[in-house]
């Protein structure tokens, strides 16, 4: 049972120094920080449920249409996917560095870390755009222009023998795979775009010295958000790129 | 009939000069406010607006059903009218009704805090609500939507040519308003309680909002992603719910009802919180079995997540899952019954008075019980197959939602009106309104049970002539009900200027909110209270009063 709120004794209040960023409705800075961080974790829980709907759909259709999911997965570039995973994990590292710099009041380090995180975010989205473009060219984007024939008669790629084709019926189910691929990576990218907008805002604020007075709750909680977006990708990468790669 | 009403001497009584209403002036001080009480008032005005739009649409439905032919409007217009009625009433009225108004106003005060944990997010949630509501109205004006409030695929994704995308986005946005409200409540209840306010000293109103908030926070995101997928399916043609592409429309049903069944409890749980407060106050007794009532709220929230498939018994799901979900559905009846029985035991040997909030609360208990018991008919798969998609369903959920939740909402609005405005509503005319509402409600919806048993299907503008008598009853009842809803609208606005001054605690109730001035100060408390008494401790209240007298003497 959390008894924090109870343990606070308001009689002690006058002894506290009253920092400028303590909002009027909190008793102490400790209470404020714990409240904000609790709220952030709860928000991340709603995000888990948000992605959870798509993961449920993925689970069902992967069981139903496994050969189509394997074929669809094999058209993704494992090199680009791995590089992107690396880019995103690195961006999580720079973000963690940013939070550390904010905690230790290193303004320059904070700005550098945030800028690096932003650049890595752009790099991730750039690589993602290259991958999306390839899907457009191959008519693998679900909708009116989708064409499953390349899964019925796969072309041999340079240096590799052609994969065996799927029956037409199953090949058509690759559209479900690509629907999920675009919905899941698209929602992930949308979260990154929102994150990068917030990053830009924080960079401007950090450059003005906004986080040098100990009010770093925003940086810390943004860090949680950024790591969450990273973790979503850590699930998406094996689920979408690595199906049956050992064959 | 005795009364517990204790108003200050009206010739000398004054509304405190400094309160949250007079603290700042000008329209911007309202539109940019962080004060949970002002946001509650903003919500109250906006949800009342949407309630009357939804109510007008309901009136159109009942007028059309006065005759067996579809003569008032074309059948596809009728489809749009009942769809919009459902969408507005569910997403823009019932879901935010009690939490966003009374919950927003009272939860910080009840736990002894100066505000909700995140005032800006609270304000943002109101703007999101307005954006969602505005977009819904836009969709309605520019051609409407005719999928029903359930957005059933593949109807919504393939076969209709109405504003599904606009409405879907509107509900998506309004959903975030609900998520933020729930998040704010949970964080506030965990982290902002006053010294001494332990979990089991909290009023049951707070417990029921805590349970509803869990549902809002965990359920609404699933609806959000489901609507996104519907919109993507309609716009760019992804195939997750499209059988032609290998998707499965049943998956849509699972995802949709995974939110929309818990949403039923999002709607009713805060109402149950209101009823606990009102019954205890007007029976002058502690709520019988406090912890059982508190835990039953949480139990409803937990069970509520595992019953969604009972909306899908006739959709070709497996018999075994139907069996399991049918059983789980029956289990929800247990915590609901615990509440009803505990309220009944609270009344037992209480000194009951019949003020307006209490009349509405009695209405709630009776109508919710009928609504709940008919839910058991629908939860057992055998009778469900006979009754589903008939007016029995319509009557069932209107008994729970209108007879239950709307009664609770009106009960709460009357009960806390003195606290919110500093003035009393007129007692006699409001008692009349409560009785009119109860009579009108039964006239409207009881015949629909019979219609459903006789097999009249829902969602059609025309029906066989032998059903006309009961439909005329229902429409006549609806006009009585309409009067019952218009009356409070009129006299509550009237009371803002002419109502009697209420004083701090007109009901002699025990909650923290009654121990401060009415209307409260912007910061609620001059000094954060230290809580030593249990909830509903009337002896403590007596001692407080004696203490005051000796101090004055």
Number of strands of chain B: 0
Quaternary form: heterodimer
Question: What would you report as the Rg of chain A, rounded to the nearest angstrom?
Answer: 23 Å
CATH class of chain A: Mainly Alpha
Query: Gap between N and C termini of chain B, in Å?
Result: 32 Å
Query: Main sheet of chain A, how many strands, which sense, barrel?
Result: none
Count of the separate structural domains of chain A: 1
The largest chain-to-chain contact, stated as pair and per-chain residue counts, equals:
A-B, 53 and 51 residues
Give the SSE order of chain A as H and E letters: HHHHHHHHH
pLDDT < 50 runs, ≥5 residues of chain A: 1-16
CATH class of chain B: Mainly Alpha
The beta-strand count of chain A equals: 0
The coarse overall form of chain A would be elongated
Number of helices of chain B: 17
CATH superfamily of chain A: Cytochrome c oxidase, subunit III, four-helix bundle
> Architecture of chain A, according to CATH?
Up-down Bundle
Task: Write a short abstract of this structure.
The complex is a heterodimer of chains A (247) and B (553). With 247 residues, chain A is mostly helical.
Topology:
The complex is a heterodimer of chains A (247) and B (553).
Chain A: H1 4-7, H2 29-64, H3 66-74, H4 78-103, H5 107-137, H6 149-152, H7 168-172, H8 174-207, H9 217-241
Helix pairs in contact in A: 2-8, 2-9, 3-8, 4-5, 4-9, 5-8, 8-9
Chain B: H1 27-31, H2 36-64, H3 75-94, H4 97-110, H5 119-141, H6 155-159, H7 164-191, H8 204-235, H9 249-283, H10 290-304, H11 319-347, H12 356-379, H13 381-387, H14 391-421, H15 427-454, H16 468-498, H17 538-552
